[in-house]
């Protein structure tokens, strides 16, 4: 009470008498003045739930609500929230409360209490009334607070917050921030509205770069802007980065394995550990390490007969040939040229590999002439199963996120016709899921549901069926309650696939939302089986029956990954699940840990995974090893590299485990340490649906690794391709040519709600662009010589000379 004027302190004991007196006084100015005083005195009687401050304030309307000070206004806001809740329960009108709140909001905004203003309107469920009160001085803090609240709000409030922040950014001309929010809303109309808000072609190009990173396809009128959106120069910029960092020299797998550091025990037969499997592993390592660089020492050689492709056998040739495309990633012209000679090979698997390669080399890049569609469409109906499968997956990878109707027309008959094998139908469904990710496409949904209901039990029990379920799930990525109808429909399918699909659709629809109730539901699913009696029967049907629990564990990671506190808590839950869970749960836990921390090598995560990699159950160990690769993907982390070398010697006689150690080593050195698999970008604000979809396809196959990746379906690992992004910051001039400027790179600091103008990075080092950005790092320009057209310095950023630069004395 120190801030309360003296006379009011002496009135406090007489409060009861004064309230009685108020009712006796005649109506008029004097009575209003008394109500004004009683409203302030009422602050000190907060314990009797009468909400007197608010009651007397409503009886004495006043324009100057802030005259009694900040504490009084905050107290009023608190009582408005309580009163609103009470009136909603009784279904009474609250218009007068709204009028008072809209008087309080400008006061809060003027006095640096942006969070209080937002909270008040949230209580009254009227956040859309905020934009008119926000100006150029307050918008930044208001929007920062609102956007950081989104992960903690239940639907539909979360979307309402994003829409309001979008309107504020758009009205203040902050177009790159508005675009980031339009992407989070996944609303193409809003994205187009951002383009329409300015005529500046340079800004259009910057917006196009942001969209291209998310693999969102829009058709725009300006050809130069369309070129930026099509990512066609990504390869050129990536090679510029490689030259600047002096890492152009190709690496061979041995540079990664460093076998001389492995403590392999001298065993006579150690050399004979399935050499075909190890050659295949080297093919993957070679293509991951040299990804995007366009040259290597094994595959792309002048003398075709000595190519590494021929050191593999059968399906291994398929993956090895597709690896050539991985090395030429994003470079469509060169890639198609180098793959062309393999298209005419007499070896069926090599030809199939070149078809898959066409899909890989076109991933994330779209060309006017549509080479992938032209070359692959004729093989979709081919009689040869490898050629057909490669063409289907190739189409999925090259058009991921494009929502192209012609791809739908090609692949839809393969799902609808029940005479096709489950493998072909399921991979077609998965490819369509990738192409139409997050679109809620009704036609595809109908076809997949129809097939699930029409096919007989033996077909539905096929191991490939899981990809049909996933294809359906991907259509509803991040769409929350839009999937409810589908989930209800799936309950009609009695076969276990109905339940598995149900869980997959559910987890995809809440991806990255941090929804706590969903996580609780999934944890309930995980303990279900332990209570039921185990059924007699063969192990395969047992595996199929409890698949949904494996998906539930992955789902916990997928939902929690959008929010830091949730991610921390979930890691503890995984420890419990590992301890008490059934087989399919234990197999999925390492994968979930890898996903939640992709390309973010936290010591506590990979140390735990390192423990699991020695598990007595080899399936768990293999997945833990892959997860170690996922956690360190593209970081060259030395500690992880050492752990993987130790695992290579530990499993030197176990072909499958050694194969997975090699894959993990390849991922760790992805693009020689210049790339990331993290589905988050733009300072961890945006979750890229396409990236997450690609990773999910691989993780779902790994829940039963011995049937897929460790068997002959290792080509499924190439579903990681749409998730691979360079983690660079390249600054471009107005002609889109790279320029060098100094930037500070440091750990990002959360500045939400902090007073003044706090520093946004800590522990920074000054570099000259281009630079690599690690997980949780942020860059800012060192001086004001240039203005960046993008609000976040990440990826490709266009700089403009600053006209108003203040010259130093």
Automatic annotation (TrEMBL):
One GO term describing the cellular component: nucleus
Residues covered by the 26S proteasome non-ATPase regulatory subunit RPN1 C-terminal domain: 752-804
Gene Ontology biological-process entries: proteasome-mediated ubiquitin-dependent protein catabolic process; regulation of protein catabolic process
SUPFAM superfamilies referenced in this protein's UniProt entry, alphabetically: ARM repeat
Classification via Gene3D superfamilies: Leucine-rich Repeat Variant (1.25.10.10)
GO MF assignments: enzyme regulator activity
Domain RPN1 N-terminal: 1-262
Keywords from the UniProt entry: Proteasome, Repeat
A Pfam family it matches: RPN1_C
Family, per entry: Belongs to the proteasome subunit S2 family.
Purpose of the protein: Acts as a regulatory subunit of the 26 proteasome which is involved in the ATP-dependent degradation of ubiquitinated proteins.
Name of the molecule in the record: 26S proteasome regulatory subunit RPN1
Organism: Lipomyces tetrasporus
């Amino acid at each position: 009470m120190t801030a309360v004027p003296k006379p009011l302190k002496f009135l406090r004991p007489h409060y009861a008498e004064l309230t009685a007196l108020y009712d006796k006084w005649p109506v008029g100015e004097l009575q209003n003045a008394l109500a004004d005083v009683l409203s302030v005195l009422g602050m000190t009687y907060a314990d009797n739930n009468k909400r007197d401050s608010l009651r007397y304030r409503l009886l004495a309307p006043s324009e100057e609500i802030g005259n009694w000070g900040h504490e009084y206004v905050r107290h009023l806001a608190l009582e408005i929230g309580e009163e609103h809740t009470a009136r909603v329960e009784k279904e009474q009108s609250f218009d007068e409360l709204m009028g008072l709140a809209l008087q309080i909001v400008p006061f809060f905004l003027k006095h640096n209490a942006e969070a209080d203003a937002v909270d008040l309107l949230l209580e009254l469920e009227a956040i859309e009334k905020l934009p008119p009160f926000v100006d150029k001085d307050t918008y930044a803090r208001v929007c920062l607070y609102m956007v950081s609240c989104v992960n903690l709000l239940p639907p539909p409030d979360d979307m309402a917050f994003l829409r309001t922040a979008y309107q504020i950014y758009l009205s203040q001309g902050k177009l790159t921030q508005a675009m980031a929010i339009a992407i989070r809303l996944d609303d193409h109309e809003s994205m187009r509205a951002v383009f329409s808000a300015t005529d500046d072609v340079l800004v259009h190009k910057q917006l196009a770069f942001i969209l291209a990173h998310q693999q969102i396809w829009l058709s725009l009128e300006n050809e130069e802007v369309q070129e930026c959106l099509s990512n066609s120069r990504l390869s050129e910029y990536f090679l510029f980065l490689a030259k600047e960092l002096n890492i152009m020299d190709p690496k061979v797998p041995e540079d990664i394995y460093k076998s001389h550091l492995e403590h392999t025990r001298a065993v006579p037969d150690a050399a004979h550990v399935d050499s075909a499997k190890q050659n295949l592993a080297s093919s993957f390592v070679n293509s991951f390490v040299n990804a995007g660089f366009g040259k290597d020492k094994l595959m792309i050689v002048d003398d075709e007969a000595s190519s590494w492709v021929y050191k593999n056998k059968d399906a291994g040739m398929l993956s090895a040939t597709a690896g050539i495309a991985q090395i030429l990633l994003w470079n469509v012209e060169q890639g198609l040229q180098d793959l062309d000679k393999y298209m005419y090979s007499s070896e069926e698997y090599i030809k199939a590999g070149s078809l898959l390669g066409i899909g890989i080399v076109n991933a994330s890049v779209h060309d006017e002439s549509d080479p992938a569609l032209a070359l692959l469409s004729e093989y979709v109906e081919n009689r040869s199963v490898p050629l057909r499968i490669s063409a289907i997956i190739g189409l999925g990878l090259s058009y991921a996120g494009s929502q192209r109707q012609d791809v739908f027309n090609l692949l839809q008959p393969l799902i609808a016709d029940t005479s096709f094998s489950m493998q072909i139908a399921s991979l077609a469904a998965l490819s369509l899921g990738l192409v139409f990710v997050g679109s809620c496409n009704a036609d595809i949904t109908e076809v997949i549901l129809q097939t699930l209901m029409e096919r007989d039990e033996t077909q539905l029990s096929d191991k490939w069926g899981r990809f049909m379920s996933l294809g359906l799930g991907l259509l509803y990525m991040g769409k929350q309650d839009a999937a409810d109808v589908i989930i209800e429909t799936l309950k009609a399918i009695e076969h276990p696939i109905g339940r598995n699909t149900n869980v997959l659709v559910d987890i995809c629809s809440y991806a990255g939302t941090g929804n706590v109730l969903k996580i609780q539901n999934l944890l309930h699913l995980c303990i279900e089986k332990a209570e039921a009696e185990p059924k007699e029967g063969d192990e395969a049907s047992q595996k199929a029956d409890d698949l949904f629990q494996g998906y539930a564990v992955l789902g916990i990671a997928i939902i929690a990954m959008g929010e830091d506190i949730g991610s921390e808590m979930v890691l503890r839950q995984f420890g419990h699940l590992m301890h008490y869970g059934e087989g399919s749960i234990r197999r999925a836990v390492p994968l979930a840990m890898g996903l939640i921390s992709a390309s973010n090598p936290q010591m506590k995560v990979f140390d735990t995974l390192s423990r699991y990699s020695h598990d007595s159950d080899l399936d768990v160990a293999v997945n833990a090893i892959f997860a170690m690769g996922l956690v360190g993907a593209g970081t060259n982390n030395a500690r992880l590299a050492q752990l993987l070398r130790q695992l290579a010697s530990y499993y030197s006689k176990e072909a499958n485990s050694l194969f997975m150690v090699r894959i993990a080593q390849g991922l760790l050195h992805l693009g020689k340490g210049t790339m990331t698999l993290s589905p988050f970008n733009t300072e961890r604000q945006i979750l890229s649906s396409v990236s997450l979809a690609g990773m999910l396809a691989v993780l779902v196959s790994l829940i039963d690794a011995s049937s897929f990746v460790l068997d002959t379906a290792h080509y499924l690992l190439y579903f990681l391709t749409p998730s691979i992004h360079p983690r660079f910051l390249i600054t471009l001039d107005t002609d889109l040519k790279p320029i060098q400027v100094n930037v500070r790179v440091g750990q990002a600091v959360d500045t939400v709600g902090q007073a003044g103008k706090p520093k946004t990075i800590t522990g920074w080092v000054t570099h000259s662009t281009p630079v690599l950005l690690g997980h949780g790092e942020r860059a800012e320009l060192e001086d004001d010589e240039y203005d960046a057209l993008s609000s976040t310095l990440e990826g490709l950023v266009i700089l403009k000379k600053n006209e108003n630069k203040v010259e130093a004395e």
